[in-house]
Write a structure and sequence with these properties.
It is a single chain. By secondary structure, this protein is of the alpha+beta class. It contains five helices and four strands. The longest helix has 16 residues.
Length: 137
């Protein structure tokens, strides 16, 4: 069964924060029930090199490297925030539940007003092995 997904395009009045949030909401909604849609979502928004990097981190950590989790609860989507940092980097934060710590993922995005692309993902506080995979050239 092929299931389609829609990703809200961002017009000239949009922002990177909104585009990143829309990406993460779509990804989180698909994570448990429709992983094939997330493959297509990554292919639409990321370079093949970034996808390989994400797959390496996912394999090493046993957690989906886009969301740094194995699954996401409804609270994860509700608590999701995106905050601008600098140089086109944004902090994506969410919680599994009201008592959990925030999961923090840094996302670099570009061309948010025309052709939304995630150009890099980083994981603050990741262990040494994960950081070596992340920063491999």
């Amino acid at each position: 069964m092929i299931v389609c997904f829609s990703f809200i395009s961002v017009n000239s009045f949009g922002s990177c924060e909104k585009a990143i949030r829309d990406f993460y909401v779509a990804y989180m909604q698909n994570a448990e029930n429709n992983p094939e849609a997330n493959i297509a979502l990554k292919q639409a928004c990321m370079s093949p090199e970034l996808i390989v990097k994400i797959e390496q981190v996912t394999e090493r950590t046993d957690a989906d490297a886009v969301i740094m989790a194995q699954d996401v609860s409804k609270h994860g989507i509700q608590s999701l925030t995106v905050e601008p940092l600098k140089d086109n980097w944004y902090m994506v934060k969410y919680k599994f539940n009201t008592n959990s710590d925030y999961i923090e993922i840094e996302v670099q995005a570009c061309n948010c007003d025309s052709d939304f692309r995630i150009s890099d993902i980083s994981y603050p506080g990741a262990d040494t092995e994960v950081n070596s995979l992340i920063h491999k050239q």
